[in-house]
Structure prediction request, 70 residues.
Amino acid sequence: MATSVYKIIELVGTSDKSWDDAARNAVETAAKSLEDLRIAEVGKLDMQIDNGKVVSYRARVKVSFKYKKD
Prediction:
């Protein structure tokens, strides 16, 4: 059986619409420069507030991808 190693990084995605969009932005942006993404885990959600109103949503996302030895 072949073995694999995966690296995990943490990203923060933002959106002015929703937490779903914030998490999606993090993953889709990472996919532009990382290969073989495997799993995304949302760990923390928060909001930025200005004058008592929510102005943006933030999602902290851990993303794993296959580690390739050079």
About this structure: The beta strands are 6-15, 37-50, 53-66. The first strand starts at residue 6 and ends at 15. Helices lie at 19-31.
